[in-house]
């Protein structure tokens, strides 16, 4: 039998640390004996790892547990405030930033309007916002540990490059590399629908679901796919751009260069186009459009009602295609247009119920995201948090 190498031992040690950190984050507080039982590691190994993690500031003693006889055991807990991460969402008109601890609890929130005509403008704006957030970090041992960024567009996940963002003018942009000039911690860049999906799967309504699709219906239409419990990213991390499936080659021109993309019928952009001839005429900025349309529709304005219903029907038609292609258990609708759910849902469901005998739509659960406005930014923070935990 060959002796284990130093590399083997380091791998084993890292694995044991990861197992213990994972259990501690899930269970709250545990004694060393309970940890040994749950992890099936030896008591000696558990004690060694726990002592290291306490010395490094990732675990802390939180008091004595109970015992039938003999000494009461010391309970340990994960120290969520050992450091902090930033989650950032770059949307077409706005940048949102949250600061979370290592359990994903939000400790500060920032928002800034951004009209980035060039990549340089965006990098400058992000660096300024990150610096501002840094000044608001609570005292901690490690300070800022990672930054996660969710962005509306095609993202090369492995390289941290925004390859194209049809609703923004500055792409392509090597975001990870460019931000390294002002941020000296790991930076993770992902598509906003993937980030939102990852959040819902890890912490939200998809926690016990293995096959799901997240539709991000905002100014554009993005999507993320969960297959066998993992986010499906495709060859270069850019899978899931369902909003750019061409439905009608003779349809309106999309920002991606094609005509008649699904996004042109199922998004705020579609709503804007459909309501351009409405009376009263549009009097609001793009960002407030959905809200304005809902107010008009609630007051009975036929044009706003028709436009919202048309978006709902188009969503339903696309969802039938998704159901037939991927057979998800749950389809979550998120982002800004969820605010109009009362108008979208009846039309969507009417289309789905008329889908004939399609077995894929009969059991499909279609639900709005309870975190629809901030799932992407929370997802960005969760990606950053995962990167930190993986390095412990
Ligand atoms: Zn398109």
Automatic annotation (TrEMBL):
<keyword id="KW-0119">Carbohydrate metabolism</keyword>
<dbReference type="InterPro" id="IPR000600">
    <property type="entry name" value="ROK"/>
</dbReference>
<comment type="function">
    <text>Transcriptional repressor of xylose-utilizing enzymes.</text>
</comment>
<dbReference type="InterPro" id="IPR043129">
    <property type="entry name" value="ATPase_NBD"/>
</dbReference>
<dbReference type="InterPro" id="IPR036390">
    <property type="entry name" value="WH_DNA-bd_sf"/>
</dbReference>
<dbReference type="InterPro" id="IPR049874">
    <property type="entry name" value="ROK_cs"/>
</dbReference>
<comment type="similarity">
    <text>Belongs to the ROK (NagC/XylR) family.</text>
</comment>
<dbReference type="InterPro" id="IPR036388">
    <property type="entry name" value="WH-like_DNA-bd_sf"/>
</dbReference>
<dbReference type="Pfam" id="PF00480">
    <property type="entry name" value="ROK"/>
</dbReference>
<protein>
    <recommendedName>
        <fullName>ROK family transcriptional regulator</fullName>
    </recommendedName>
</protein>
<keyword id="KW-0859">Xylose metabolism</keyword>
